[in-house]
TrEMBL record:
<dbReference type="GO" id="GO:0005737">
    <property type="term" value="C:cytoplasm"/>
</dbReference>
<dbReference type="InterPro" id="IPR036390">
    <property type="entry name" value="WH_DNA-bd_sf"/>
</dbReference>
<feature type="compositionally biased region" description="Low complexity">
    <location>
        <begin position="497"/>
        <end position="509"/>
    </location>
</feature>
<comment type="subunit">
    <text>Component of the COP9 signalosome (CSN) complex.</text>
</comment>
<dbReference type="Pfam" id="PF01399">
    <property type="entry name" value="PCI"/>
</dbReference>
<feature type="domain" description="PCI">
    <location>
        <begin position="252"/>
        <end position="420"/>
    </location>
</feature>
<keyword id="KW-0963">Cytoplasm</keyword>
<keyword id="KW-0736">Signalosome</keyword>
<feature type="region of interest" description="Disordered">
    <location>
        <begin position="450"/>
        <end position="509"/>
    </location>
</feature>
<dbReference type="GO" id="GO:0008180">
    <property type="term" value="C:COP9 signalosome"/>
</dbReference>
<keyword id="KW-0539">Nucleus</keyword>
<dbReference type="InterPro" id="IPR050871">
    <property type="entry name" value="26S_Proteasome/COP9_Components"/>
</dbReference>
<comment type="similarity">
    <text>Belongs to the CSN2 family.</text>
</comment>
<dbReference type="InterPro" id="IPR000717">
    <property type="entry name" value="PCI_dom"/>
</dbReference>
<feature type="region of interest" description="Disordered">
    <location>
        <begin position="1"/>
        <end position="30"/>
    </location>
</feature>
<feature type="compositionally biased region" description="Gly residues">
    <location>
        <begin position="456"/>
        <end position="471"/>
    </location>
</feature>
<protein>
    <recommendedName>
        <fullName>COP9 signalosome complex subunit 2</fullName>
    </recommendedName>
</protein>
Length: 509
């Protein structure tokens, strides 16, 4: 992108992932200065060291600080940074910042400095480069502090916060995001709608920090606040970051449905931004689908379908296919042959749950025909250790998905017959019901109580008045049927039913 193009672009617009290559058009000025500048540009690729000297010679040819000297210093600084000459790059960056107050316009200087910092950020590859980058940020903040350029102040501080996040300097980062949140608020503490884009970037950085430190409580609160920001038109990459962290947060809570939704939104935003992170988030989406136990293929949607045959996602595609077919051997083989999947800590942390679910299904399917089996048999079939088999079987028994008991001394599992258990339970229920009915009939039946409320035992068989008569006591077991019964008298002499004394009851016959 040319310096002139930088100048012409709207300074309010955020730029991401553009090329940092100058292709300046002639702006007039001294011919010798122009020739020197363009001669240096032609030397950049083949002879960068000599090109640096040529670029640094441009400012000296100007009687006063101007555009050509500014552009020459920018080119020299970029080359010095690429070659690892960090001290020289910092020295010449200080000189460059002296041009922004008078030699070039405010919008041009702001855009150029922001592009320079973006270039430095993308080119930094080691700790020395990061230290140099931190000096660039500090110098920029010092230089623009007196100019009251709030936009550049916010952008530079956000870049500095991002650097501290990469270096895991959380204490400094916490202080910086607190300062940035305050700068994006009104005096009453509410969010300033005019700074909504910056506010979302700060939220994204803080959410990333809490995701890395596993502070889910703070992460959840910030995530919900970030989604309520309506005044901004954020870059999709920022929303991709926020949604990705939200998905990871939901995963830690085993809220698979919400995690799947967030990962899909994150993938869609990264895809729109052209970010390579879309591939990694697509893997998270596939992982969540397996944890949900869903039969829906995550590559059926219009957004994900183009990536189904992408070689970078092929392993996860094969994995979800084996999972949905419940093919344990293919699943284990894919994991074994693609250990690079576990290089991502998030996948490594959650794939164990998927594997356990897969093995649990395989054990249930394998032991279905048997009433007795050994742990070593399952171990051999699934190619896992007997201890892992015992752990799975124990879980199934506790979860009542398998009825049986483990004999650890012999390493065998005895499965209880479901039909026998059901028959025994039915007999117990039937016996209990009969006993309850018998007790109710004998204790509460109207035909078995005396008028005075005295409960008598008898059978109703063959005694005369005074013995078998209902008005007098009868001995247990002396009735006609040989069983004791509780009878109610209808009066002395004949019973209320009109039967003669001594006649047997219905229960006695």
């Amino acid at each position: 992108m040319s310096d002139d193009d930088d100048f012409m672009q709207d300074s309010e617009q955020e730029d991401y992932d553009f090329e940092y290559e100058d292709d300046d058009e002639e702006q007039g000025g001294d011919v010798d200065i122009e020739n020197k500048y363009y001669n240096a540009k032609q030397m950049k690729v083949d002879n960068p060291e000599d090109a640096i000297d040529e670029f640094l010679g441009v400012p000296a040819l100007e009687p006063e600080k101007g555009d050509w000297g500014f552009k020459g210093l920018k080119q020299a600084i970029k080359l010095e940074f690429r070659l690892g000459r960090y001290d020289k790059a910092v020295e010449h960056y200080k000189e460059l910042l002296t041009y922004v107050k008078s030699a070039v316009t405010r919008n041009y200087s702001e855009k150029s400095i922001n592009n320079m910092l973006d270039f430095i950020e993308k080119s930094a590859e080691d700790e020395d480069a990061n230290r140099c980058m931190e000096k660039f940020y500090s110098l920029t903040l010092e230089s623009f502090q007196s100019t009251n350029n709030e936009r550049l102040w916010l952008k530079t501080n956000i870049k500095l916060a991002r650097l501290w996040l990469d270096r895991k300097e959380y204490r400094q980062l916490t202080e910086k995001v607190r300062e940035l949140h305050k700068a994006c608020q009104r005096e009453d503490g509410t969010d300033d709608p005019s700074k909504g884009t910056y506010s979302l970037e700060v939220y994204a950085l803080e959410i990333l920090m809490y995701a890395e430190t596993r502070n889910n409580k703070r992460l959840k609160a910030l995530y919900q606040r970030a989604l309520k920001v309506r005044s901004a038109v954020p870059h999709p990459k920022i929303m991709g970051i926020i949604r990705e962290c939200g998905g990871k947060m939901h995963m830690s809570e085993e809220n698979w449905k919400e995690a799947q939704s967030d990962f899909f939104e994150s993938f869609r935003n990264y895809d729109e931004a052209g970010s390579l992170q879309r591939i990694q988030v697509l893997k998270y989406l596939v992982l969540t689908t397996m944890l949900m136990g869903s039969d829906i293929n995550p590559f059926d949607s219009q957004e994900t379908k183009p990536y189904k045959n992408d070689p970078r996602i092929a392993a996860m595609t094969d994995l979800v296919d084996a999972y949905q077919r419940e093919d344990i051997h293919s699943y284990e083989k894919i994991l074994q042959n693609n250990k690079d999947l576990l290089a991502d800590p998030f996948i490594a942390e959650n794939i164990d749950e998927v594997t356990r679910n897969m093995r649990t299904k395989a054990v249930l399917k394998l032991v279905a025909p048997y009433t007795r089996f050994t742990l070593s048999f399952i171990s051999k079939q699934l190619k896992i250790t007997p201890l892992e088999v015992q752990d799975i079987v124990s879980f199934l028994i506790v979860d009542k998905k398998l009825r049986g008991r483990i004999d650890q001394s012999s390493g065998t599992v005895q499965i209880e017959s479901v039909s026998d258990n059901d028959r025994i339970r039915a007999m117990q229920d039937w016996s209990s019901a009969i006993g309850s009915l018998w007790a109710t009939v004998l204790n509460e039946g109207e035909g078995f109580k005396s008028e005075e409320g005295t409960q008598l035992l008898g059978g109703g068989g063959g005694g005369g008045p005074g013995q078998g008569d209902f008005g007098g006591p009868m001995q247990p077991g002396r009735g006609a049927n040989g069983y004791g019964a509780k009878l109610r008298s209808g009066g002395k002499g004949k019973g209320s039913s009109g039967r003669p004394p001594g006649a047997g009851s219905a229960l006695g016959r």
